[in-house]
Specification:
- With 239 residues, the protein is mainly β.
- The chain has a 6-stranded mixed beta sheet with strand order 2-9-8-4-6-5.
- Helices cover 6% and strands 41% of the residues.
- A hairpin with a 5-residue loop joins β12 and β13.
- 33% of the residues are buried.
């Protein structure tokens, strides 16, 4: 599996994609930087993990994200878009993708859902690492389980846009502007270049790709002088 971005700003989104043969669905869990004491990565109450205790009692774990995602019967792929809440905690969220064993169940007991497999454990007041250990114990580390796990971390932070240093160019040479941003793939960055008096190069709209952006300006009709370059993410963040 893989994620579309490892650094993402609050309010943006990212996508988890992968391939899982031998199963009809995978389960995705996302754990906050502060574990069960942190915020869920999305704002939707429908995305909370609901564990099932041995007596059948459901318990909503309000700080852990969970989604069951269908796997294609033709090419065995799956995809899930995650919308990051604007109020989500900053920090590294743990992303876990789980696939049940050949018995189509989780753990030694072959539970038919991750909700039931985790229902034998207490997830309250646990750190991110402790929750990971619990999930592993309930699935891949269980004797004879055959379960599979993939994990990674996604860093969530306040939206940022940063320009890289720009070299002086001679009139007529291309002016290349580059920068970085933690906005999601395809987010639009507006770049303006203003010079002496009313001189301004034609503004450009560029998109974030892999956390970077780039624009090349034609300076044929520019005049010599000092220019101010501004990158604006459209959300009030500039450099």
């Amino acid at each position: 599996a893989e994620v579309s971005a490892e650094n993402i700003s609050r309010g943006d989104d990212f996508t988890i994609t992968g391939e899982a043969k031998g199963t009809k669905q995978v389960d995705i869990l996302i754990i906050a930087p502060k574990g069960s004491g942190g915020s869920v990565i999305t704002g939707s109450s429908a995305d909370r993990l609901v564990i099932t205790q041995p007596d059948g009692t459901p318990i909503v774990v309000t700080n852990i994200y969970h989604a069951s995602v269908s796997v294609s019967e033709t090419d065995y792929t799956f995809t899930k878009k995650i919308n990051v809440d604007a109020e989500a905690n900053n920090g590294s969220y743990l992303v876990i993708v789980l696939s049940p064993g050949s018995d189509n169940g989780y753990g030694k007991a072959g539970y038919n859902s991750i909700e039931r497999a985790l229902g034998d454990y207490t997830l309250i007041a646990k750190t991110q690492d402790e929750i990971l250990a619990i999930v592993q114990d309930a699935t891949v580390n269980a004797v004879g389980s055959g379960d599979l796990m993939w994990l990674t971390y996604v860093r969530v932070g306040t939206p940022t846009v940063t320009l890289n240093p720009i070299a002086t160019v001679t009139v007529g040479e291309p002016l290349v502007v580059t920068g970085t941003s933690n906005h999601g793939e395809g987010h639009t960055i507006i770049i303006t270049v203003k010079g002496p008096g009313t001189v301004e190069l034609t503004p450009q709209l560029v998109r974030v790709e892999n956390g970077t952006f780039e624009a090349t300006f034609d300076t044929t009709n520019a005049v010599a002088g000092i220019y101010t370059v501004i990158a604006d993410d459209g959300d009030g963040n500039t450099d």
